[in-house]
Protein: Inositol 2-dehydrogenase IolG
Organism: Butyrivibrio hungatei
Amino acid sequence: MVTVGIIGAGRIGKVHVQSISNNVPGAKIKTLADPFMNDETAKWAEGMGIEKVTKDYKDIINDPEIQAVLICSSTDTHAPISIEAINAGKHVFCEKPIDHDVNKIHEVIDALKGKNLKYQVGFNRRFDHNFRAVQAAVAAGKVGDPQIIKITSRDPEPPSPAYVAVSGGMFMDMTIHDFDMARFLAGCDAEEVYVQSAVLVDPEIGKAGDVDTAVITIKMKNGALVVIDNCRKSVYGYDQRAEVFGSKGMAAITNDAQSNVTVSNQDGVTGEKPLFFFLERYMQAYSDEIKSFIDAVENDTETAVGIEDGLKPVLMAMAANLSVKEHRPVKLSEVE
Amino acid sequence: MVTVGIIGAGRIGKVHVQSISNNVPGAKIKTLADPFMNDETAKWAEGMGIEKVTKDYKDIINDPEIQAVLICSSTDTHAPISIEAINAGKHVFCEKPIDHDVNKIHEVIDALKGKNLKYQVGFNRRFDHNFRAVQAAVAAGKVGDPQIIKITSRDPEPPSPAYVAVSGGMFMDMTIHDFDMARFLAGCDAEEVYVQSAVLVDPEIGKAGDVDTAVITIKMKNGALVVIDNCRKSVYGYDQRAEVFGSKGMAAITNDAQSNVTVSNQDGVTGEKPLFFFLERYMQAYSDEIKSFIDAVENDTETAVGIEDGLKPVLMAMAANLSVKEHRPVKLSEVE
Amino acid sequence: MVTVGIIGAGRIGKVHVQSISNNVPGAKIKTLADPFMNDETAKWAEGMGIEKVTKDYKDIINDPEIQAVLICSSTDTHAPISIEAINAGKHVFCEKPIDHDVNKIHEVIDALKGKNLKYQVGFNRRFDHNFRAVQAAVAAGKVGDPQIIKITSRDPEPPSPAYVAVSGGMFMDMTIHDFDMARFLAGCDAEEVYVQSAVLVDPEIGKAGDVDTAVITIKMKNGALVVIDNCRKSVYGYDQRAEVFGSKGMAAITNDAQSNVTVSNQDGVTGEKPLFFFLERYMQAYSDEIKSFIDAVENDTETAVGIEDGLKPVLMAMAANLSVKEHRPVKLSEVE
Amino acid sequence: MVTVGIIGAGRIGKVHVQSISNNVPGAKIKTLADPFMNDETAKWAEGMGIEKVTKDYKDIINDPEIQAVLICSSTDTHAPISIEAINAGKHVFCEKPIDHDVNKIHEVIDALKGKNLKYQVGFNRRFDHNFRAVQAAVAAGKVGDPQIIKITSRDPEPPSPAYVAVSGGMFMDMTIHDFDMARFLAGCDAEEVYVQSAVLVDPEIGKAGDVDTAVITIKMKNGALVVIDNCRKSVYGYDQRAEVFGSKGMAAITNDAQSNVTVSNQDGVTGEKPLFFFLERYMQAYSDEIKSFIDAVENDTETAVGIEDGLKPVLMAMAANLSVKEHRPVKLSEVE
């Protein structure tokens, strides 16, 4: 039984609390910390069987009983808290991205050196039943050598322009998952990124210096060509698809819906639209990523999504940003 | 090149004219006969390259150049014209049903005895790409021994009560295709039929002594259980599906639509409804059945749908009618 | 917070323990009883946060703190324990079927009279996301008046002949869910049942006096025709589909799979087979039925599946058995 | 009735002969010309009802009875024969591409000026039932403003390196259809093209100076982003899909197969792979494009795919080639 502390009681922190309480029998949450901890959250935490709540995350860092920390606080705190937790000898699960600044990620990498501590980054989609199945098909050789990889990722509704201004922009806060997926499905790193982008959803996003629609072409080190298409707003809901085409065939996945009911009438045959957003689509994945992390801690094995997996997509996002700025293909080596 | 005469220039007669003109290079239509032949039809026939039109089908029977006759006239004339054509030494393709009265069908069987003439019955669905594929899967052993066979057959719009009164009723004019399909997919004959039926579409059909909705259970001689569901009115169009479940798996087919486009929006994901009715769904099948008939004539091989295949579904329809009347399962041996 | 006792720690009892622990925040399991309670189960129960385990279900009946009882013991004990629990003032959730003998079910009905106690029967499929969606479409009028209802229900592997001998047979242990589904989807009771059945899977099942394959036709009181097809063995897994066809359209559902991945290669386009069996397919439904029961207890509302819903499918199974025996359609009024 | 001459009796010439004979009642082929005309082809042509065959296409140009010419000869002859036919006062249907050299296309444009002659280019996919349906959905406003357009186009087998050397390369001989489709679906012209390409199928294609796999990003003048993915070899057959995503939804199409049969067994649920190649997939489209051309001639209306539609994709292919050469995004204005 792994004793866990969770730092950050926002939306994703609460998701992990629920996952662990309901679906991760090997872990027990001792403490939940949040600078804005209030009575409501404290009561909810008690109902979830959490022993202690606090406003000060150091209560977790300094608790010798706590073996593993989940960092779900704001992005700018991910790296420094990671380092504090590592130095306190704790295993770390950190939400993505570790940081927008690769130097800070390298500091975390340095902190981990020589310590036998587990570090997992929150790329939850790798644990989704569909993405996992397409990757398994590729890994099993069913498509042969990957040649073209297509990833569609569209959100149901755009963030506020205010959020975009601090999030690092679309490539850093949204596409980062797709960059990770490209590496996961191709089984290797990226070599070059080119972005064709536009502001088609909300001019305010453009004024905030970001884009809201993009087609991103990536050349992977194994020669596979990846294309990611993103949009901040899809009226039919969260669109999360992928396909890997290769020398022996193609593996493809599509969206999930609440049910598979279809209604046929004079207007056609109508099924349900995709599940609304990430909380609906990826709840099973959130559970499974934490299970996987706890398993790695318990069995002293590699985490499924290590610190390098946290670094690489940030580099890809940086290359994407540079590609937009200079309107040209950008090699990863230029930003590393 | 087989020289053909077509008797009957109604809807289905015209379908066969077009099929032969466009898609059956091995056949040439010399004469088209119809008691109601008029200028419009005559002109149309000329445009299709037909040499001669006539009101008297005997012009076809008596023409020594004509090798094969397609009988597309009203059902009550199918058997007598078949016999005339056979006696004139012509191969016959006859629309279904040959007759509502099995005695008349037996007269045709008797007429064929000892003559090397081809006789094919117009069960076009056997030539449909989907039904053919499901049957091929069964024949290739992909489902093992058939255990449960399901056939859905629903028309987009009911016939007039007047038509029902002369058609022999739903089992004889509509389900007859499904009875044939049951034999085609099971690969054997029926043993017993039970009908649960209702008048749910049009009370006038009930007043005419017929039903418009039915679930028909059939026990086949190889032990497979067949269920056919019929309705005279399906608002989303012609519904023509089948599945064969067996010891090694299941083969299933569904409807065709005009295109496979789907539109996703806030209301769901909508595809096109099935093709409207038999002319839309089965045009390829109508062509292929005539090609098959002409091939049998040219190569002196068995027709794909012989005279026995014309008889058996009529017996099944009779058993179905008796089942409705006496509200009990009826053995085929009771009506043979 | 409703305090619950669970009687029976077999497969389905454990499913409910897990559901409540993980997904029903409004309930707390105090006691788990099973005549074969052993150390392993006791330890597992402790891990699930259950306060007490016992071999004697009376420890639950007699515990004044326990408000609701889940009866997951063998079928023959369902009715007597239901009555004991009711007399002790407890709400009851009872697995299906309540009993094979309608008289015993009537005794439970009598016991409930005049008491404001909730009684829910374990027809879990009503809570499955797909079946719920098709029923919701029907209830919303999207198909108009139901005319033909089709239910496919095939198990991945047959039970042992020994099980069949005590289970009450296929109609009582397996089709009972489909009988319930017929009522759920049609929105009314059955009037008449006809069965065409066979032994096609395992001759030993036949020797035990049961069938393993059946097509069941039902006439509902609202005129809709229902057809259920059952087989004890489907090599591609648990096949659980339904469609409701009516005057305004059709609502249909199909199976769920572990993922929606497809692999395209020279052999075709292959997707995953359906989820293996009920534990895989219906875990969400098991959770939701208990949530619904607890809600009914907490809010003093009708249970979603009441005692009458437990009685009616048993009558339908009896009619089905009589239909097999006498090979004729059987009215429900004959067995009531 | 339009009298037609066909120049070129290769594969596509024969397709048009068959289409007109079988499915275009408004046209009559008088003459078929091919420099390699032989007895076999002559006999076949006679069987198709063609009056005259010749080795000299000038027999068509100089025949005053012939109103319309179909140019199906080798690409290098498209432009000069077009001009000869135009100067002879004939309507022209010309296979794609008109030429690899835009100057030659401009000469055809000049030749057409001031003459009321119809000119149609053979972009057959615009007439395919699926592509037509997705375009119709876009044109009907069902997706709102197009934002992301995805076109997948993969051939079942690569051409010989020898062919590639003379075809103008992949962008000119294969992607040219997708460039046309981008314009058709977006409803406007392209502004900029970027290509990420590779030689992953056959190194000999690389040695011949071409690529065999590519992801092409296009910015359209209305702001929509288009991505085309191409591969010269898809083991599961011809892959021809598209989707248009916009402010109000998405319209998408997928492949057609020979039938929709699926076989379910312990290995999964398997459907047929896509139709093998363009002759299988687009036969209906080939027919309909000629019907449309003949209609335009008969009714003196605009052709559905005019000379400008023939020019623009060639410019896009030139931009694509330049993008590969200089590894950068290329504006259409650079090649016009």
Q: What stands out?
A: Chain D touches chain B at residues 21-23, 25, 47, 129-130, 132-134, 137, 142-143, 248-254, 256, 258-266, 272 (CB under 8 Å).
